[in-house]
Amino acid sequence: MARTVWDSSVGKKTVMAVSGLIMLMYLVVHMIGNLKIFFGPGEFNHYAHWLRTLGEPFMHYEWTLWLIRVVLVVAVIAHATSAYQLSRRDIKARPTKYVHKKPRSSYATRTMRWGGIILGLFIVWHLLDLTTGTVHSGGFQEGRPYQNVVDTFSTWYGNVIYILAVLALGLHIRHGFWSAAQTLGAGNRTRDRALKATADILALLLTVGFLAVPVGVMTGVVS
């Protein structure tokens, strides 16, 4: 049964929608946590430590955080796999390109595929930079996330990579939220306008929220 659902285009779109919404919920929480950096190193570092003790004493140190990571990894893999397979299926169904591009297709719609690739590469870089410290610009300091963030956004390339990824994320969310709503049957004639407005607001808030951190470091508000 599960295999039959997965093999269908509707099943793959549903997997894309659900996994996308899981990642969206994480991004909202992640953005709110990031903004704690404006309250100083003590507040931000305490928040980072709290994430690792979440669920104690029932859960051991970092168990809840690792559980969240596993769920996110599964969501990312499911999202990327279903998107790739749907794309390949669409190409096979239309082996020749359209003579004329669809005039009403938005920029976000046309760049969803490349946006997904950019975000996938960014996730790898982001983890290697601020989680493992493998590609970190300055001396990575375990247990001092505030200083590590400041170090990253004190470099031109750290800012460029992050800003480009966040802009791609905004476009991806704007189109993805709308598509997920349609796939899951939330859209109809009366709700379409509200769903489109929600997609625009979510994309704008997340874009501005995530960009606030590098802008804060570049302007000296965070130092």
Task: Describe the secondary structure blueprint for this structure.
Layout: H1 2-7, H2 9-34, H3 41-53, H4 63-93, H5 107-110, H6 112-130, H7 145-152, H8 156-183, H9 192-218
Summarize this entry quickly.
This protein is an all-alpha fold and 223 residues long. The chain has 9 helices and no strands. Helix 2 packs across helix 8 (156-183), helix 6 packs across helix 8 and helix 8 runs antiparallel to helix 9.
Describe the structure in your own words.
This protein is mainly alpha-helical. The chain is 73% helix and 0% strand. Helix 2 (9-34) crosses helix 9 (192-218), helix 6 (112-130) crosses helix 8 (156-183) and helix 8 (156-183) packs antiparallel against helix 9 (192-218). The model has no long low-confidence stretch (mean pLDDT 88).
